[in-house]
Write a structure and sequence with these properties.
With about 375 residues, the protein is an alpha+beta fold. Helices cover about 55% and strands about 20% of the residues. Strands 1, 3, 4, 5, 6, 7, 8, 9, 11 and 12 form a 10-stranded mixed sheet that branches. The chain has a two-stranded antiparallel sheet with strand order 2-10. Helix 1 crosses helix 12, helix 2 packs antiparallel against helix 10 (about 245-280) and helix 10 packs antiparallel against helix 12.
Length: about 375
Protein backbone atom coordinates (compact mmCIF):
# COMPACT_ATOMS: atom_id res chain seq x y z
CA UNK A 1 0.00 0.00 0.00
CA UNK A 2 1.03 3.60 -0.58
CA UNK A 3 0.50 6.38 1.97
CA UNK A 4 -2.03 9.01 0.75
CA UNK A 5 0.52 11.79 1.26
CA UNK A 6 2.72 10.22 -1.44
CA UNK A 7 -0.01 10.23 -4.11
CA UNK A 8 0.80 13.83 -5.21
CA UNK A 9 4.39 12.70 -5.81
CA UNK A 10 3.16 9.90 -8.09
CA UNK A 11 0.87 12.27 -10.00
CA UNK A 12 3.69 14.76 -10.38
CA UNK A 13 5.85 12.09 -12.04
CA UNK A 14 2.99 11.19 -14.41
CA UNK A 15 2.51 14.78 -15.62
CA UNK A 16 6.16 15.70 -15.53
CA UNK A 17 6.75 14.72 -19.16
CA UNK A 18 3.41 15.72 -20.61
CA UNK A 19 4.00 14.71 -24.21
CA UNK A 20 5.17 11.23 -23.30
CA UNK A 21 2.32 10.79 -20.82
CA UNK A 22 -0.33 12.02 -23.27
CA UNK A 23 0.92 9.69 -26.01
CA UNK A 24 1.00 6.75 -23.58
CA UNK A 25 -2.51 7.52 -22.33
CA UNK A 26 -3.76 7.82 -25.90
CA UNK A 27 -2.27 4.45 -26.78
CA UNK A 28 -3.66 2.76 -23.68
CA UNK A 29 -7.06 4.37 -24.25
CA UNK A 30 -7.19 3.20 -27.86
CA UNK A 31 -6.20 -0.35 -26.92
CA UNK A 32 -8.77 -0.50 -24.10
CA UNK A 33 -11.42 0.96 -26.41
CA UNK A 34 -10.86 -1.98 -28.75
CA UNK A 35 -10.65 -4.40 -25.82
CA UNK A 36 -13.98 -3.15 -24.39
CA UNK A 37 -15.70 -3.35 -27.77
CA UNK A 38 -14.49 -6.92 -28.28
CA UNK A 39 -15.61 -7.86 -24.77
CA UNK A 40 -19.09 -6.54 -25.54
CA UNK A 41 -19.26 -8.66 -28.70
CA UNK A 42 -18.10 -11.73 -26.78
CA UNK A 43 -20.69 -11.08 -24.08
CA UNK A 44 -23.41 -10.76 -26.70
CA UNK A 45 -22.25 -14.03 -28.27
CA UNK A 46 -22.55 -15.84 -24.94
CA UNK A 47 -26.00 -14.39 -24.26
CA UNK A 48 -27.27 -15.42 -27.71
CA UNK A 49 -25.84 -18.94 -27.91
CA UNK A 50 -25.09 -20.43 -24.50
CA UNK A 51 -27.76 -22.80 -23.23
CA UNK A 52 -28.80 -22.90 -19.59
CA UNK A 53 -30.80 -25.28 -17.45
CA UNK A 54 -33.94 -23.13 -17.64
CA UNK A 55 -34.23 -23.07 -21.46
CA UNK A 56 -37.61 -24.41 -22.61
CA UNK A 57 -37.86 -23.10 -26.18
CA UNK A 58 -37.38 -25.13 -29.34
CA UNK A 59 -37.23 -23.84 -32.91
CA UNK A 60 -38.74 -26.08 -35.59
CA UNK A 61 -37.19 -25.18 -38.95
CA UNK A 62 -37.25 -26.67 -42.43
CA UNK A 63 -34.53 -29.34 -42.68
CA UNK A 64 -31.43 -28.34 -44.68
CA UNK A 65 -32.60 -24.73 -44.85
CA UNK A 66 -31.00 -21.78 -43.13
CA UNK A 67 -32.09 -18.42 -44.51
CA UNK A 68 -35.76 -17.56 -43.67
CA UNK A 69 -36.38 -17.00 -47.38
CA UNK A 70 -36.01 -20.74 -47.99
CA UNK A 71 -37.58 -22.26 -44.87
CA UNK A 72 -41.20 -23.00 -45.76
CA UNK A 73 -43.37 -25.19 -43.52
CA UNK A 74 -47.13 -25.85 -43.67
CA UNK A 75 -48.94 -23.98 -40.92
CA UNK A 76 -51.05 -27.07 -40.19
CA UNK A 77 -47.96 -28.78 -38.70
CA UNK A 78 -48.90 -26.87 -35.59
CA UNK A 79 -51.74 -29.20 -34.60
CA UNK A 80 -49.51 -32.29 -34.81
CA UNK A 81 -46.71 -30.65 -32.83
CA UNK A 82 -49.11 -29.53 -30.09
CA UNK A 83 -50.31 -33.13 -29.56
CA UNK A 84 -46.82 -34.50 -28.88
CA UNK A 85 -45.96 -35.46 -25.31
CA UNK A 86 -43.99 -32.76 -23.50
CA UNK A 87 -45.17 -29.86 -25.69
CA UNK A 88 -46.83 -26.99 -23.81
CA UNK A 89 -47.52 -24.82 -26.85
CA UNK A 90 -46.53 -24.38 -30.50
CA UNK A 91 -46.57 -20.96 -32.15
CA UNK A 92 -46.28 -20.54 -35.93
CA UNK A 93 -43.99 -17.74 -37.02
CA UNK A 94 -42.94 -16.04 -40.24
CA UNK A 95 -39.48 -14.45 -40.23
CA UNK A 96 -38.99 -11.83 -42.93
CA UNK A 97 -35.65 -10.07 -43.20
CA UNK A 98 -34.38 -7.14 -45.24
CA UNK A 99 -31.06 -8.91 -45.75
CA UNK A 100 -30.19 -12.57 -45.16
CA UNK A 101 -26.44 -11.95 -45.18
CA UNK A 102 -24.30 -10.82 -42.26
CA UNK A 103 -24.88 -7.13 -41.63
CA UNK A 104 -24.88 -4.47 -38.93
CA UNK A 105 -28.25 -3.10 -40.10
CA UNK A 106 -30.90 -5.73 -40.73
CA UNK A 107 -34.63 -5.25 -40.17
CA UNK A 108 -36.29 -8.51 -39.09
CA UNK A 109 -40.07 -8.93 -38.97
CA UNK A 110 -41.56 -11.75 -36.91
CA UNK A 111 -45.15 -12.61 -37.71
CA UNK A 112 -47.05 -14.32 -34.87
CA UNK A 113 -50.76 -14.79 -34.07
CA UNK A 114 -51.07 -11.43 -32.32
CA UNK A 115 -53.90 -12.01 -29.84
CA UNK A 116 -52.67 -15.45 -28.96
CA UNK A 117 -49.04 -14.38 -28.51
CA UNK A 118 -49.76 -11.10 -26.68
CA UNK A 119 -49.87 -12.58 -23.12
CA UNK A 120 -46.51 -14.35 -23.57
CA UNK A 121 -44.91 -11.27 -25.12
CA UNK A 122 -46.23 -9.13 -22.26
CA UNK A 123 -44.58 -11.47 -19.73
CA UNK A 124 -41.08 -11.20 -21.15
CA UNK A 125 -41.13 -7.66 -22.54
CA UNK A 126 -41.03 -4.22 -20.96
CA UNK A 127 -42.96 -1.58 -22.88
CA UNK A 128 -40.80 1.52 -23.35
CA UNK A 129 -43.33 3.51 -25.40
CA UNK A 130 -46.81 2.86 -26.80
CA UNK A 131 -48.63 -0.27 -25.67
CA UNK A 132 -49.40 -3.87 -26.56
CA UNK A 133 -53.11 -2.96 -26.65
CA UNK A 134 -52.39 -0.48 -29.45
CA UNK A 135 -50.55 -3.28 -31.27
CA UNK A 136 -53.66 -5.46 -31.08
CA UNK A 137 -56.02 -2.76 -32.34
CA UNK A 138 -54.76 -2.66 -35.92
CA UNK A 139 -53.59 -5.43 -38.23
CA UNK A 140 -50.60 -3.53 -39.62
CA UNK A 141 -49.16 -2.54 -36.23
CA UNK A 142 -45.67 -3.51 -35.03
CA UNK A 143 -44.00 -3.98 -31.67
CA UNK A 144 -40.41 -2.87 -32.26
CA UNK A 145 -37.43 -3.98 -30.19
CA UNK A 146 -35.47 -1.20 -28.50
CA UNK A 147 -32.18 -1.85 -30.35
CA UNK A 148 -33.87 -1.77 -33.77
CA UNK A 149 -35.97 1.28 -32.85
CA UNK A 150 -32.98 3.27 -31.61
CA UNK A 151 -30.78 2.31 -34.56
CA UNK A 152 -33.44 3.25 -37.11
CA UNK A 153 -34.81 6.24 -35.18
CA UNK A 154 -38.31 4.74 -34.98
CA UNK A 155 -40.97 6.31 -32.76
CA UNK A 156 -44.51 5.31 -31.83
CA UNK A 157 -46.86 6.32 -34.63
CA UNK A 158 -44.23 6.19 -37.39
CA UNK A 159 -45.08 4.49 -40.67
CA UNK A 160 -42.15 2.31 -41.69
CA UNK A 161 -41.64 0.58 -45.05
CA UNK A 162 -38.98 -2.11 -45.45
CA UNK A 163 -38.77 -4.40 -48.48
CA UNK A 164 -42.41 -3.72 -49.36
CA UNK A 165 -43.70 -4.36 -45.82
CA UNK A 166 -45.34 -1.21 -44.42
CA UNK A 167 -46.20 -1.12 -40.71
CA UNK A 168 -47.17 1.41 -38.05
CA UNK A 169 -45.07 1.43 -34.88
CA UNK A 170 -47.54 0.77 -32.05
CA UNK A 171 -45.01 0.12 -29.32
CA UNK A 172 -41.31 0.01 -28.52
CA UNK A 173 -40.27 -2.79 -26.18
CA UNK A 174 -37.21 -4.04 -24.34
CA UNK A 175 -36.50 -7.59 -23.22
CA UNK A 176 -33.89 -9.77 -21.56
CA UNK A 177 -34.12 -12.11 -24.55
CA UNK A 178 -31.39 -11.11 -27.07
CA UNK A 179 -33.52 -11.93 -30.13
CA UNK A 180 -36.41 -9.70 -29.01
CA UNK A 181 -34.31 -6.52 -29.01
CA UNK A 182 -33.65 -6.34 -32.73
CA UNK A 183 -36.93 -7.41 -34.35
CA UNK A 184 -40.40 -6.05 -35.09
CA UNK A 185 -43.36 -8.26 -34.12
CA UNK A 186 -46.39 -8.08 -36.41
CA UNK A 187 -49.56 -10.12 -36.82
CA UNK A 188 -49.04 -13.42 -38.67
CA UNK A 189 -52.04 -12.99 -40.97
CA UNK A 190 -50.80 -9.55 -42.02
CA UNK A 191 -47.28 -10.78 -42.79
CA UNK A 192 -48.57 -13.80 -44.75
CA UNK A 193 -50.00 -11.35 -47.27
CA UNK A 194 -46.73 -9.47 -47.70
CA UNK A 195 -44.65 -9.82 -50.90
CA UNK A 196 -42.87 -13.19 -51.06
CA UNK A 197 -45.11 -14.82 -48.40
CA UNK A 198 -48.03 -17.22 -48.74
CA UNK A 199 -51.13 -17.84 -46.64
CA UNK A 200 -50.90 -21.18 -44.81
CA UNK A 201 -47.09 -21.27 -44.95
CA UNK A 202 -44.72 -20.22 -42.14
CA UNK A 203 -40.97 -20.03 -41.60
CA UNK A 204 -40.79 -21.89 -38.30
CA UNK A 205 -42.57 -22.93 -35.12
CA UNK A 206 -41.57 -21.81 -31.64
CA UNK A 207 -42.31 -24.66 -29.27
CA UNK A 208 -42.58 -24.30 -25.49
CA UNK A 209 -41.61 -27.50 -23.67
CA UNK A 210 -43.16 -28.45 -20.32
CA UNK A 211 -39.87 -29.64 -18.79
CA UNK A 212 -36.39 -28.26 -19.66
CA UNK A 213 -34.88 -31.72 -19.14
CA UNK A 214 -37.00 -33.05 -22.02
CA UNK A 215 -35.81 -30.48 -24.55
CA UNK A 216 -33.77 -32.93 -26.64
CA UNK A 217 -36.36 -35.72 -26.43
CA UNK A 218 -39.17 -33.46 -27.66
CA UNK A 219 -36.95 -32.16 -30.47
CA UNK A 220 -36.33 -35.73 -31.68
CA UNK A 221 -40.05 -36.56 -31.46
CA UNK A 222 -40.95 -33.56 -33.64
CA UNK A 223 -38.38 -34.43 -36.31
CA UNK A 224 -39.47 -38.09 -36.29
CA UNK A 225 -43.07 -37.01 -36.78
CA UNK A 226 -42.29 -35.11 -39.99
CA UNK A 227 -39.39 -37.20 -41.31
CA UNK A 228 -41.56 -38.86 -44.05
CA UNK A 229 -43.22 -35.55 -45.05
CA UNK A 230 -42.37 -33.52 -48.13
CA UNK A 231 -41.21 -30.74 -45.79
CA UNK A 232 -39.10 -32.48 -43.10
CA UNK A 233 -38.01 -30.51 -40.06
CA UNK A 234 -34.91 -29.82 -38.01
CA UNK A 235 -35.61 -28.97 -34.37
CA UNK A 236 -33.15 -27.51 -31.88
CA UNK A 237 -33.10 -25.24 -28.86
CA UNK A 238 -33.42 -21.54 -29.63
CA UNK A 239 -29.80 -20.81 -28.72
CA UNK A 240 -28.48 -23.83 -30.63
CA UNK A 241 -30.49 -22.60 -33.61
CA UNK A 242 -28.80 -19.21 -33.38
CA UNK A 243 -25.37 -20.86 -33.15
CA UNK A 244 -26.06 -23.09 -36.15
CA UNK A 245 -27.51 -20.36 -38.39
CA UNK A 246 -24.69 -17.94 -37.60
CA UNK A 247 -21.85 -20.47 -37.72
CA UNK A 248 -19.46 -18.43 -39.87
CA UNK A 249 -20.27 -15.30 -37.91
CA UNK A 250 -19.50 -17.07 -34.62
CA UNK A 251 -16.09 -18.16 -35.90
CA UNK A 252 -15.33 -14.56 -36.81
CA UNK A 253 -16.43 -13.34 -33.38
CA UNK A 254 -14.35 -16.01 -31.65
CA UNK A 255 -11.30 -14.85 -33.61
CA UNK A 256 -11.65 -11.45 -31.97
CA UNK A 257 -10.35 -13.02 -28.75
CA UNK A 258 -6.90 -12.89 -30.30
CA UNK A 259 -7.41 -9.22 -31.08
CA UNK A 260 -8.34 -8.65 -27.43
CA UNK A 261 -5.16 -10.42 -26.38
CA UNK A 262 -3.19 -8.19 -28.75
CA UNK A 263 -4.79 -5.13 -27.13
CA UNK A 264 -3.70 -6.35 -23.68
CA UNK A 265 -0.14 -6.91 -24.90
CA UNK A 266 -0.13 -3.43 -26.44
CA UNK A 267 -1.19 -1.86 -23.14
CA UNK A 268 1.50 -3.80 -21.29
CA UNK A 269 4.18 -2.68 -23.75
CA UNK A 270 3.10 0.98 -23.80
CA UNK A 271 2.94 1.37 -20.04
CA UNK A 272 6.14 -0.60 -19.44
CA UNK A 273 8.05 1.44 -22.02
CA UNK A 274 6.85 4.73 -20.54
CA UNK A 275 7.84 3.70 -17.01
CA UNK A 276 11.22 2.34 -18.02
CA UNK A 277 12.11 5.57 -19.82
CA UNK A 278 10.90 7.60 -16.86
CA UNK A 279 12.87 5.53 -14.35
CA UNK A 280 16.06 5.77 -16.40
CA UNK A 281 15.76 9.56 -16.51
CA UNK A 282 15.28 9.78 -12.73
CA UNK A 283 18.13 7.64 -11.42
CA UNK A 284 19.76 10.55 -9.54
CA UNK A 285 16.37 11.55 -8.09
CA UNK A 286 15.90 8.07 -6.70
CA UNK A 287 19.37 8.29 -5.12
CA UNK A 288 18.35 11.56 -3.51
CA UNK A 289 15.13 10.01 -2.22
CA UNK A 290 17.11 7.14 -0.71
CA UNK A 291 19.44 9.64 0.93
CA UNK A 292 16.36 11.35 2.43
CA UNK A 293 15.24 8.07 3.97
CA UNK A 294 13.08 6.50 1.27
CA UNK A 295 13.62 2.74 1.29
CA UNK A 296 14.13 0.72 -1.87
CA UNK A 297 10.75 -0.95 -1.30
CA UNK A 298 9.01 2.44 -1.09
CA UNK A 299 10.63 3.66 -4.31
CA UNK A 300 9.52 0.43 -6.00
CA UNK A 301 5.95 1.00 -4.81
CA UNK A 302 6.03 4.56 -6.16
CA UNK A 303 7.03 3.28 -9.58
CA UNK A 304 4.32 0.58 -9.58
CA UNK A 305 1.78 3.24 -8.53
CA UNK A 306 2.88 5.37 -11.48
CA UNK A 307 2.14 2.52 -13.89
CA UNK A 308 -1.19 1.94 -12.15
CA UNK A 309 -2.22 5.60 -12.58
CA UNK A 310 -1.26 5.69 -16.28
CA UNK A 311 -3.09 2.47 -17.10
CA UNK A 312 -6.11 3.46 -14.97
CA UNK A 313 -6.53 6.82 -16.71
CA UNK A 314 -6.12 5.24 -20.14
CA UNK A 315 -8.45 2.37 -19.20
CA UNK A 316 -11.17 4.74 -17.99
CA UNK A 317 -10.96 6.85 -21.15
CA UNK A 318 -10.97 3.85 -23.47
CA UNK A 319 -13.73 1.86 -21.79
CA UNK A 320 -15.99 4.91 -21.37
CA UNK A 321 -15.46 5.77 -25.03
CA UNK A 322 -16.49 2.27 -26.08
CA UNK A 323 -19.46 2.34 -23.70
CA UNK A 324 -20.79 5.58 -25.15
CA UNK A 325 -20.31 4.43 -28.75
CA UNK A 326 -21.99 1.05 -28.24
CA UNK A 327 -24.80 2.33 -26.04
CA UNK A 328 -25.88 5.04 -28.46
CA UNK A 329 -24.84 3.24 -31.65
CA UNK A 330 -27.19 0.28 -30.89
CA UNK A 331 -25.01 -2.08 -32.91
CA UNK A 332 -25.82 -5.74 -33.50
CA UNK A 333 -24.52 -8.37 -35.89
CA UNK A 334 -27.38 -10.04 -37.76
CA UNK A 335 -27.32 -13.10 -39.96
CA UNK A 336 -30.31 -14.96 -41.43
CA UNK A 337 -32.70 -13.00 -39.22
CA UNK A 338 -30.87 -13.79 -35.98
CA UNK A 339 -28.91 -11.25 -33.97
CA UNK A 340 -25.90 -11.01 -31.71
CA UNK A 341 -26.27 -7.77 -29.79
CA UNK A 342 -23.30 -5.82 -28.45
CA UNK A 343 -23.83 -6.18 -24.69
CA UNK A 344 -22.81 -3.17 -22.58
CA UNK A 345 -23.43 -4.59 -19.11
CA UNK A 346 -21.36 -3.53 -16.09
CA UNK A 347 -19.50 -6.84 -16.02
CA UNK A 348 -18.02 -6.10 -19.46
CA UNK A 349 -16.62 -2.76 -18.40
CA UNK A 350 -15.52 -4.00 -14.99
CA UNK A 351 -13.50 -6.67 -16.80
CA UNK A 352 -11.93 -4.12 -19.15
CA UNK A 353 -11.04 -1.69 -16.37
CA UNK A 354 -9.73 -4.55 -14.20
CA UNK A 355 -7.47 -5.74 -17.02
CA UNK A 356 -6.04 -2.25 -17.49
CA UNK A 357 -5.26 -1.97 -13.76
CA UNK A 358 -3.63 -5.40 -13.64
CA UNK A 359 -1.51 -4.67 -16.69
CA UNK A 360 -0.41 -1.35 -15.18
CA UNK A 361 0.86 -3.13 -12.08
CA UNK A 362 2.61 -5.84 -14.11
CA UNK A 363 4.20 -3.25 -16.40
CA UNK A 364 5.75 -1.46 -13.46
CA UNK A 365 7.11 -4.49 -11.63
CA UNK A 366 10.42 -5.01 -13.49
CA UNK A 367 11.57 -1.34 -13.47
CA UNK A 368 10.33 -1.05 -9.88
CA UNK A 369 12.39 -4.03 -8.72
CA UNK A 370 15.46 -2.74 -10.57
CA UNK A 371 15.14 0.74 -9.06
CA UNK A 372 14.41 -0.62 -5.58
CA UNK A 373 17.54 -2.79 -5.55
CA UNK A 374 19.88 -0.08 -6.81
CA UNK A 375 22.13 1.35 -4.11
CA UNK A 376 22.72 5.08 -3.67
CA UNK A 377 26.31 4.72 -4.93
CA UNK A 378 25.24 2.80 -8.05
CA UNK A 379 22.46 5.30 -8.71
CA UNK A 380 24.79 8.29 -8.50
CA UNK A 381 27.41 6.57 -10.63
CA UNK A 382 24.94 5.53 -13.39
CA UNK A 383 23.16 8.87 -13.30
Amino acid sequence: MLAPKLIPLVLKQVVRHRTRSVLTLAGVGTAMFLFGTIQSIQSGLRAATEKNAADTLLIVYRKDRFCPFTSKLPEDYRAKIAKLDGVASATPMIVAVSNCRTSLDVVTFRGVPAREAAPELAKRMRVVAGSIDDWLRRSDAALVGSVLANRRGMKVGDRVDVQGITVTVAGIVDSDEPQDKNVAYVDLAFLQRAPGQKVGVVTQFTVQVTDPSRLDAVARAIDDEFAPATAPTHTSSEKAHVAMAAGDLLELVKFTRWVALGCAVAVLGLVANSIIIGVQSRVREHATLQALGFSGHLIARLIVAEGLVVSALGGIAGTLGALVLLKYGNFSLSNEGLSINFETGPEVWAAGFGVSLALGVVAGLVPAVQAGRRSITDALRSG
